Protein 1
Amino acid sequence: MLKRYLLAPGPTPVPPEVLLAMARPIIHHRAPEFAQLFGEVREDLKWLFQTRNDVLIFASSGTGGMEGAVANFLSPGDKALVVNGGKFGERWGKICKTFGVQVTEIKVEWGRAVDPQVVAEALKKDPAIKAVFVQASETSTGVAHPTKALADVVRPHEALYWSSMRLPRWASLISKQMTGESTSSSPDRKRP
């Protein structure tokens, strides 16, 4: 059999052990077994993202999550700041405009990270901005924006800060958890 490799930013290839786990019989979403599994997944996601807060799970592509963020946190006429440094940053702007959000765009040369000071200046210039959208890992260009520094800049302005990313480095741990394989060699599993 010819083995095909997907060498695109996403979606990422699915490990064989995950494909095998997905071939098991489906658990009905109203069954007690599903409720228990779903609860475990929600708790494990808190560990993965190092938070005590609830982690929302979207049954969609990453774009669906982006759309959910805009549609549920902003209203037509609200203002948002969008960092456009690649295809996904560009997509943030298109989604905002589709929902009637007024977009202030910071264009960053593709292949470069945004300067947090530029974001700070844009927020100072327009205090009515309610949200800042940035793609943490702009996989279309290979850039990782400085998310912690951006959060520090946005926090005093009381704007929603949404940083979307993919987590390929955790794929092995997640696949081990899905298949029931031991995770003892995984990173420290202490709860946040």
Protein 2
Amino acid sequence: MSRSRKRKHQKFSINLVKKEDKRINENYKEYKKMNKVKKIGIVGNWTGANSFGITKPYMFFWSHFGEVSIISPMEKHVRDLDLLVIPGGPDVDVFRYLREEDDIDLNTGAPCYQRERFDKMLLPKYIAKGTPIFGTCRGLQTIAVTLGARLKQDMHHETNGDNRHALVHGITFDNIEVIPGLEELVNHPDSKDYKVNSLHHQTVLEETLPQEATVIARHFKDNEVEAITYWPTYPIHTMQSHSEEMFDKFSLVLISHLLSLSDEEEI
């Protein structure tokens, strides 16, 4: 495909998505209001055979909230951040949470050892420092494991195909009084049948969560964990769904709360 044809194709594809998905456009307007400059660090990884960083959706999405920097998993010290983002990725290393009597599920994938290095060496330090943290998909899982939980290695419910921003299943909310602004969102008429995307095959075993954890959203049918907060013990909110693909209002509430904490420190 020639460069000119490729540009035309890309422009057409972008316009098509915008016309088909008014939901993203409407929510996007709310995200554009986030104009305070915050220091946001996202853990990077190999994005290709000879490249390192984060994918475009993460950069585009999180740039609405502040100045984004990429964190190398090989760093030795924690940074001074307003928000640390733990993105999605491969399965968490099972040997971080398996008990002696547990087996490895045949559908469990290989871990990424660069990410595992960060999770073992740096994530606990960020938690101990009190850095606000937002975890996406694998981020939810590895934070839970770091704090003592175990994972369900393989589960089955609706999953996205090529359209990563499609909303494929509903969620139900719980403990909505814990996060400022969440109760208002959940009680809004538009949130009656709230749906999210889904790109994971593992989730947290709720009964193994530490006492600091509070489940704030579940799958609408099977009750699998979809979102967890560790607030007020830790300034940490996590979701199984991918905010960077949805621009949804639930994510906005959680992120806004975490970013507001640095404003309170400045007062």
